[in-house]
Amino acid sequence: MKVMVGFPPTQSSLGTPLLSQNRQFQYFNKPTFLYPVVLGTGATMVKKAGHEVIWEDAIAQFLGWKEYDEIIERERPDIFLFETKAPVVKRHWQGISHMKEKFPWMKIAICGDHVSHLPGETLENSEVDYVINGGYYDFAFLDLVEWLSESKSGAPNGIWYKDDNGDVVENGRYEFYKDSNRNINDAPFPDRKLTKYMNYQDEFNLKGRPQFYIMSARDCAWGKCTFCVWDHALYPKGAYKQRTPENTLEEVKHLVDNFGAREIFDDAGTIPPGPWLKKFCELMIESGYNKKVMYSCNMRFGWVDAEMYQLMKRAGFRLLKYGLESGCQKTIDKLDKGTDINKVFEHCKDAKDAGLTVHITMMVGYPWETKAESMEVFKLADKLMSAGLVDIHQSTIVMPYPGTPLYAEAVKEGWLRFGETDYEKLAMDQPAMKNMEMSPEEIQGLCKHNYMTYLKPSYIWHHAKSRIRSWEDVKYTFEGVTALFGHLKDFSRKPEKSGKSEILTPGQTARMLANVHNPRQELVAIKAGATGAIPHKVVEEIKISSQIA
Fold it and tell me: What pairing do the DSSP bridges indicate for beta strands 317-325 and 294-299?
């Protein structure tokens, strides 16, 4: 078969959509393109199985429908696979209609977190042929292509479709973790030439060029955060898998030896800790690749100690990206984040003492936080940055994505500013949830305010003193400055008027505060196509009198 993989045109007046390799979604004024690891692996798997594969990412290649149509007409693929997310799924339904009208012979398959949570929805609302349910959609897509090639009956597990009567055939989740005949280490390294790796170099957090994204695990060993759609829709409890340290090192070698990689970002939700991380560091040092490439990754506060940070630095690690999310412990607990706010200073200092670059991310717009409480995360970030314990911080607005406990509770309690299927409002260009005292404009302003920390003399001094030592550092700093002004513009947009009250009622506030200790994991314990509920810690809901307005 001839197969096309990539992303269709998804233009917007809001900016460039950050769709690939992203647990959240945002339109950027300054374009950023992250390499889609699982989609790239899927394209490579199909190619290695003997099929002809083409890669066309209209977002990264700045293609409109005219150019994309010309590619499809010229190449005439038998099937096209692309990934979607909630904020653009309706636009993708329209795109599918466009492609089906012009190219009725081409089958279309779709994957991603939103369609894994609601696979039937896209089948009912578009002309898509197949929906892949689950996060191992590279393996599932190979099965789909082989099944179509062999014209067998009965679609592979995890592939949803419509039968001849137009009825949705529910076909479970692709439960790779229960398939004893496969191992995540059997997945090939993505074919970077096939997938046009040079289109994914605009990533301002990484300074080495060329840079490459990989994943040593899918996805996060913690896997509980109530706002993370990958934790709940793609890789729920039981689906997490790690590659071996040896297998991960082989990909590092491959990228350095064949592509001259200068920096690698390990985009597992959190790099596997404990014995895995120790072994990987030792392998990097023993092989000498710690001297050949910079290695950066996602990290959790409290998962490694000062000694491990020192080992990571010797192994070639450069940047660690932490999700701080809030400066309030009650919010951290509500999110089931597992972080102790009182120890954040200590963890940052341990990482900085080892010579590592510390990047923190934070969010605003939680319904249960007052303005004073929301400011706590900025105060904490400001102290950390002024003390030289944090190098980079990133601020966004919390988004309740379908499939997460946060979204389920927001719908149940009436926190959403818009309708529950107004997915396009989850594009992070405005708050999606009401607050108990702040307007959407105030929440939007908090995000913009946070980026002003970069302009403080104390931060500029620490940055110049400790981080600018080469021309590469100068270029990296310049990229960061342009990204800063891009983010300031991103959060300068005026929120839409929802046509209803933007503040929670006293009754909503009372119920919310009574249950602010409860992550509400039980609200999404049942997954589409799963055979049973995912086990969770039950926390009883506290009932509040319905007489409160």
Answer: parallel
DSSP class of residue 402 equals: T
DSSP one-letter code for 3: E
Tell me how far apart the alpha carbons of residues 158 and 140 are, in angstroms, rounded to a whole number. 7
How far is Cα of residue 87 from the mean position of the Cα atoms in its chain? 13
217-247 pLDDT tens trace: 998 999 999 999 999 999 998 899 999 999 9
Helix (H) / strand (E) containing 28: strand 26-28
Q: d(Cα 322, Cα 360) in Å, to the nearest integer? A: 5
Contacts of 482 (CB under 8 A, 6+ apart): 30, 204
State pLDDT tens for residues 120-173.
999 999 999 999 999 999 999 999 999 999 988 789 999 999 999 999 999 999
Cα 195 off chain centre by: 20
Q: How confident is the model at residue 537 (pLDDT cuts 50, 70, 90)?
A: confident
Q: Which of these CATH numbers, 1.10.10.10, 3.40.50.2000, 3.40.50.1820, 3.40.50.280, describes 2-184?
A: 3.40.50.280
Cα separation, 1 vs 344, in Å, equals 52
User: How does strand 26-28 pair with strand 130-132?
Assistant: unpaired
Class at the top of the CATH hierarchy for domain 203-392+441-490: alpha beta
Largest separation between any pair of C-alpha atoms in the chain = 68
Q: Find the helix packing angle between 371-386 and 457-467, rounded to 10°.
A: 40
Q: How far apart are CA 11 and CA 14, in angstroms?
A: 9
Q: What is the 3-state secondary structure (H, E, C) of 40-80?
A: HHHHHHHHHCCCEEEEEECCCCCCCHHHHHHHHHHHCCCEE
Encoded tokens for 110: 């779709």
Please state whether the peptide bond connecting residue 422 to the residue before it is cis, i.e. omega within 30 degrees of 0.
no
| Helix, strand, coil % over all residues of the chain, rounded to 5 | 40, 15, 45
Instruction: List the beta bridge partners of residue 132.
Output: 159
Exposure pattern of 294-331 as b/e (b: 16+ CB <10 Å)? bbbbbbbbebbeeebbbbbbebbbbbbbbbbbbbbebb
pTM exceeds cut of 0.85: yes
**DSSP secondary structure, 330-399, as one string:** HHHHHTT----GGGHHHHHHHHHHTT-EEEEEEEE--TT--HHHHHHHHHHHHHHHHTTS-SEEEEEE--
CA pair distance 473, 348, nearest whole angstrom: 22
Question: Any idea where the domains of the chain sit in the sequence?
Answer: 2-184, 203-392+441-490
